[in-house]
Amino acid sequence: MHQKTAAEIDEILRRLAARFPDAGCALDFANPFQLLVAVILSAQCTDVRVNAVTKELFKVYAAPADFAFCDRARLEALIYPCGFYKNKAESLISSSRDILEKFGGAVPEDYDSLLSLRGVGRKTANVVSAEAFKRPAIAVDTHVFRVSRRLGLSEGETPERVERDLMRVIPRDRRRDAHHLLIFHGRYRCKSQRPLCGECDLAPYCVYLSTPAKHDLKKRKTPV
Ligand code: SF4
């Protein structure tokens, strides 16, 4: 695979920024803990639905202590519309208990500490790190995974490999914006099943167009 040059990466990001000037975090939150809750709920769920759920959820449970010792059945009912409500309730309760017992009641800023919270994987830790603490992290969700491969930014077969490649090729001060731009590109144009290639100005940089079979991810296990 041709390794993208710094100039090519810059131009890709410039074109994406021109196409998606409003790209940014779509989850509503008022503090790092609320963001952590929202990201946990967002797995295989739309941001719009998560925002609708958290709007009511945070009226009932707002802080780690509320979640750590909550009525599990009530919590499950509140987050039911987000799907996988039993697993997500467990993650919310477990991570809240860890925050109380190990980190004094505040979401830890240190990346490894974030990652140590039960129910928190790399994607969640990276989103919280980038959005709540303004760190140069890139979370690899299903959109970032797919479009990074299609654009030849990575050939990684796992989210971890793609994340590692993106961290290597995208400058630190561009990573947070790049993350949002890649998500918007994947969500609204470079779609999984029917990418809108006819209206895409990134075609000159796209490796999917020349080798679609190699980059057809339909049968691959992609991250949520
Ligand atoms: S040309 Fe098509 S596959 Fe390539 S980046 Fe654009 S939308 Fe995606």
Describe the structure.
The chain is an all-alpha fold and 224 residues long. The chain is built from 12 helices and no strands. The radius of gyration is 18 Å and the shape is elongated. The structure holds iron/sulfur cluster. Iron/sulfur cluster (SF4) is lined by residues 150-151, 189-190, 195-197, 200, 202-203, 206, 208-209.
Sum up the structure in keywords.
224 residues, mainly alpha, Endonuclease Iii, domain 2, Endonuclease III, domain 1, 2 domains, 12 helices, disordered C terminus, binds iron/sulfur cluster
Bulk shape: elongated
CATH superfamily of the largest domain: Hypothetical protein, domain 2
Structural class label: mainly alpha
The termini sit apart by 26 Å
CATH topology category name of the largest domain: Endonuclease III, domain 1
Output the CATH class name of the largest domain. Mainly Alpha
Q: What's the helical proportion of residues?
A: 40-55%
Number of domains: 2
Instruction: Determine the strand fraction and express it as a percent band.
Output: under 5%
- What's the count of strands? 0
Low-pLDDT stretches: 219-224
Secondary structure tally, helices: 12
Could you tell me which ligands this complex binds, including any ions or cofactors?
iron/sulfur cluster
The helix/strand order is HHHHHHHHHHHH
Largest sheet: none
